[in-house]
Amino acid sequence: MSNVITDYQRWKQQGESLRTQAKAAIEARFKELLSEAAQLAEEYRADFGATLKPPNHITAFRYKATGKPKPKKSAAKPAAAKAEPPPPAAAEPAAKPDKKIVALTKRLEGAKKKLDAAKAAGQPTRNLEDKVYEIEDELRLATQAV
């Protein structure tokens, strides 16, 4: 009888060890997949300008886009490209665009798209034209301030 109990205790111990390993593996895989999903959502937002929405049955995934996109890793250049001479050093590097100007430019593009869509649909466009004018005015003032 004690042999059965000893075997059972050994089996239970092995089961607990396996359960602990499985738990750690599942948690690691879950975190890996969530990190990959967040990275894909960020790339989608950076490339297409919209947020990527999860399927309807997933309600708990919350991802907040970062303000600064991570620099993309460029693919290795072929050897022939390295043979080309570097560009002249006299050229000044381009100045970083102001965040406010970039945001206003994006808003202006969106407003113009809405205006064009409203014109194509034959809807009233007065409010949209006013909005485009206001954004253009803000953009003009922002560029003058820089």
What does this molecule look like?
The protein is mainly α. The chain has two domains: 1-67; 95-146. Helix content is 64%, strand content 0%. The chain has helices at residues 2-48, 79-82, 99-121, 126-145. Helix 3 (99-121) runs antiparallel to helix 4 (126-145). The chain is elongated. 1% of the residues are buried. Residues 78-83 and 85-92 have low confidence and may be disordered.
In a few lines, what is going on in this structure?
With 146 residues, this protein is mostly helical.
Supply the key terms.
single chain; 146 residues; mainly alpha; 2 domains; 64% helix
SSE layout and pairing:
Layout: H1 2-48, H2 79-82, H3 99-121, H4 126-145
Helix pairs in contact: 3-4
Taking pLDDT < 50 over at least 5 consecutive residues as the criterion, the unreliable ranges are 78-83, 85-92
Head-to-tail CA distance between termini:
88 Å
- The shape, in one word, is elongated
What amount of the residues lies in strands? under 5%
- Counting DSSP H or I runs of 4 or more residues, the number of helices is 4
SSE order: HHHH
Estimate nothing, just give the exact number of structural domains: 2
Percent of residues in helices? 55-70%
Structural class of the helices, strands and pairings?
Answer: mainly alpha
Largest sheet: none
| CA gyration radius, whole angstroms | 28 Å
What is the strand tally?
A: 0
Mean pLDDT: 79
